[in-house]
Amino acid sequence: QVQLVESGGGLVQAGGSLRLSCAASGSTFSRNIMGWYRQAPGKQRDLVARITSDGSTNYADSVKGRFTISRDNAKNTVYLQMNSLKPEDTAVYLCNFVDVRSAINYWGKGTLVTVSS
To answer: Which residues on neighbouring strands pair with residue 111, listed in sequence order?
Structure first.
């Protein structure tokens, strides 16, 4: 079992920045992929960015050049630095952990990011 706790959401004006954090605990020693998804009201959950245990990353086209994902393996924590935020970035951001060996997905409860125009 893996538990995920997100932090760092909030209200910010367009053009501003926020940094999200997600700390993982439990059975985190295996090869894994950690990432962020987001879900706006009435819309599907979409990938924002993800990073493997060895640091490989990929991003949604809509956030490339504005968001940066990183991780601290010693702390089992993944970060999402969000710059140049836009109102369309408003959503609940959910942390995701994938155990590569078992393919089990774990989810955090989410943190709300609101970008005002």
So the answer is: 93
Distance, in Å, from the CA atom of 112 to the CA atom of 40, rounded to the nearest integer, reads 10
Which two structure tokens, joined as six digits, stand for 24?
A: 């993982």
Residue type at 24? Answer: A
Task: Give the residues of the chain that fall short of pLDDT 70.
Answer: none
- Report how far residue 99's alpha carbon sits from residue 27's, in angstroms, rounded to the nearest whole number: 9
Cα 21 from chain centroid?
8
The residues, ordered by sequence, that sit 6+ positions from 95 with a Cβ below 8 Å of its Cβ are 4, 6, 20, 22, 24, 34, 35, 36, 78, 107, 108, 110
Residue positions counted in the chain: 117
Instruction: State the CB neighbour count (10 A cutoff) for residue 50.
Output: 19
How many Cβ atoms sit within 10 Å of the Cβ of residue 59?
Answer: 19
Euclidean distance between CA atoms 81 and 61, whole angstroms: 16
- Among 92, 91, 93, residue whose Cα is nearest residue 69: 93
